[in-house]
């Protein structure tokens, strides 16, 4: 079975057309399929349209959130409720082309576990979206070791076994291929179509770059130090101790040989305080990530709350 999952947030102008196009493509594959819309707290009339679409076809399923939880939570819910052996997420704004789904499936049938879409000719604002995306993709590839041109493209195909059980937080959905790689997945990519937005408005701005950079630090930490965090903490502590010793020795030198008292050397004190503050902030941030994951996963919690379901008579498949 093929499961297509689509997060929807205030996409009233595109959701009907997207539904028709996706259903047409999935029917042409000749395989069993389901289409799961995750309504991420829409308030523009999308809710009523989704309920109508679900009432007309049993293959169309809808998960309604109680409020807006963000794209990562919506994608996570789609994965949790998907029943297919292959799961294909995509955006709900008609910028992805449902006609590219067979190309992704072809790569999965050839033995790959993940096939990522590459928006080679992206139809977005060059300065606000495209240029920061190029820089971010190169940085993610360099840090993670996963060579992809377009981590941010939602249109991807995954074998269910490589993502079932993966828990996502923040803006982590773009790092799904990295998580899959940790599980030994074979990854490839294909060029896909990308269209300019015709309705609604983009939910993202340049501030997303900062979120990506912060999440990238977390991903690198989880990759290298999740099972041995003391290696990182110990290294930082050792560096800090060495810095403290050097600064203290410098201060003694200035005190006894130059006869400059500590009170007249404020730059040294500022350097020590700011350096230690930066180290503590980074470590506290990483510790907070670990605590958050422990809180959710040890109690079996999800990062979203479901208000209602359509054509789904069971709990999430995790």
Report what the structure shows:
With about 325 residues, the protein is an alpha/beta fold. It has 2 domains: about 230 residues, Spore Coat Polysaccharide Biosynthesis Protein SpsA, Chain A (Alpha-Beta Complex); about 70 residues. The protein has 10 helices and 8 strands. An 8-stranded mixed beta sheet has the order 7-5-6-4-1-2-3-8, sandwiched between helices. Strand 1, helix 1 and strand 2 form a beta-alpha-beta unit. The chain is elongated, with a radius of gyration of 24 Å.
Keywords summarizing the entry:
alpha/beta, 8-stranded mixed sheet, Spore Coat Polysaccharide Biosynthesis Protein SpsA, Chain A, 318 residues, 8 strands, elongated
**CA radius of gyration:** 24 Å
The CATH superfamily label of the largest domain reads Spore Coat Polysaccharide Biosynthesis Protein SpsA, Chain A
**Would you list the SSEs in sequence order as H and E?**
EHEHEHEHEHEHHEHHHE
- Please give the largest β-sheet: 8 strands, mixed
Tertiary shape: elongated
Q: How many strands appear in the DSSP assignment?
A: 8
Uncertain segments are none
Biggest sheet strand line-up: 7-5-6-4-1-2-3-8
Instruction: Look at the structure and give the mean pLDDT.
Output: 83
Distance N to C terminus: 17 Å
Query: Strand share of the residues?
Result: 5-15%
Alpha plus pi helix count:
10
What CATH calls the topology of the largest domain is: Spore Coat Polysaccharide Biosynthesis Protein SpsA, Chain A
């Amino acid at each position: 079975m093929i499961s297509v999952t689509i997060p929807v947030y205030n996409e009233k102008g595109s959701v009907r057309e997207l539904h028709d196009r996706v259903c047409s493509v999935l029917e042409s594959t000749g395989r069993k399929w389901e289409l799961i819309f995750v309504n991420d707290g829409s308030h523009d009339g999308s809710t009523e349209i989704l309920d109508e679409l679900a009432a007309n076809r049993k293959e169309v399923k809808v998960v309604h959130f109680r409020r807006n939880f963000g794209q990562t939570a919506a994608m996570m819910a789609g994965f949790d409720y998907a029943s297919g052996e292959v799961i294909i997420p995509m955006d709900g704004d008609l910028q992805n082309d449902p006609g590219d789904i067979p190309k992704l499936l072809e790569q999965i049938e050839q033995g790959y576990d993940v096939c990522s879409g590459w928006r080679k000719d992206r139809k977005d604002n060059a300065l606000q979206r495209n240029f920061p995306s190029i820089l971010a993709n190169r940085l993610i590839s360099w840090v993670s070791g996963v060579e992809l041109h377009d981590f941010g493209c939602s249109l991807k195909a995954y074998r269910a076994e490589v993502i079932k059980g993966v828990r996502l937080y923040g803006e982590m959905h773009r790092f799904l291929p990295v998580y899959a790689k940790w599980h030994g997945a074979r990854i490839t990519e294909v060029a896909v179509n990308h269209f300019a937005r015709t309705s609604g408005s983009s939910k993202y701005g340049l501030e997303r770059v900062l979120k990506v950079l912060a999440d990238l630090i977390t991903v690198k930490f989880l990759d290298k130090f999740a099972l041995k965090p003391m290696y990182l903490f110990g290294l930082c502590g050792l560096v800090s101790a060495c810095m403290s010793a050097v600064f203290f020795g410098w201060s003694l030198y200035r005190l006894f040989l130059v006869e400059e008292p500590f009170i007249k050397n404020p730059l040294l004190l500022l350097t020590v305080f700011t350096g230690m503050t930066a180290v503590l902030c980074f470590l506290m941030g990483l510790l907070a990530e670990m605590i958050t994951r422990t809180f959710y996963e040890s109690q079996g919690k999800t990062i979203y709350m479901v208000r209602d379901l359509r054509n789904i008579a069971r709990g999430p498949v995790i």
